[in-house]
C-alpha cells in the first residue's frame, strides 16, 4: 500500500506540473495578444484624431518665438547704429563740454572766431611744421588730402580750420606755399602769429598732437577727438552723424 502510493505520487506529479505550465503559458500568450491588440487600436485612433497640444505649452512656445524675433531685431538695430569704419583710435569726451573758442588770423589777413560757425559742424585740424624750411611731418601728407576731400564733399555745410604751429620768421610765406601745393581752400592760420600758443593751450585737455582733428557739433560741443590715425571714411561717417 505504501509502495503504491509512493509510485502514484512519482508518476502523477509531473503530469500536473506539465498541465499547470501549459495553462500558464496559454494565459501569458492571451495577455500578450490582448496587449498587442490594445496598442494597435490606440495607434489607429491616434492617426484619425489631430494631436492636441496643452494650452500652456502653446502659449510658452509663442512667447519664446516672439522673444527670439524681438532680440534679433534689437541686435540688428544696435549693430547698425554702432557700426563705424575701422582704422582709427578715437577719444570720446566722457561728458558734454563746450569747445574752447578762439580767434585766428588767416594767412590772407582775415580774422576769424570759430564761434561764428556755431550751427554747423566744425573740424579743427592741428598741424606742425618740421623746421623753418616748410617741411611737413609725415602725418600732414596724409591729413591735408583727407581734409581737401572733406572740404570738396561738404562745401559750406562744414567749417574747416587748420591751426598751424610755426615759430619761424616768414611763416606766412611757408603756409601760403602749402596752401597752393595742397589746394587748401579752408581757413589756415598760425597759432604763434601773436607769439603765443594760446589755441594749443586752450585744447591741452584733449592731448593735442601733430595731425589731431577735433570735431565740434552744431551746438558747439566737442563731439570727437581723433588723436592718431584716422581714415577718410571715419571722418565722413562721423560728420554725417553730426549733420
What is the chain-wise order of helices and strands?
A: HHEEEEHEHEHEEH
Overall spatial form: rod-shaped
The top level CATH class name of the largest domain = Alpha Beta
Mean pLDDT: 76
Strand order of the largest sheet: 1-8-7-4-5-6
Question: How would you sum up this structure, described in words?
Answer:
The chain has 243 residues and is an alpha/beta fold. It folds into 2 domains: 2-82, no CATH class; 90-242, Glutaredoxin, CATH 3.40.30. Helices cover 49% and strands 14% of the residues. The protein has 6 helices and 8 strands. The strands form 2 sheets. The chain has a 6-stranded mixed beta sheet with strand order 1-8-7-4-5-6, with helices on one face. A two-stranded antiparallel sheet has the order 2-3. Strand 5 (159-165), helix 4 (171-182) and strand 6 form a beta-alpha-beta unit. The longest helix has 47 residues, at 2-48. It is rod-shaped, with a radius of gyration of 44 Å. It starts with a helix and ends with a helix.
What topology does this entry show?
Elements: H1 2-48, H2 55-82, E1 90-91, E2 103-105, E3 111-113, E4 122-128, H3 138-154, E5 159-165, H4 171-182, E6 187-190, H5 198-202, E7 213-216, E8 222-226, H6 232-242
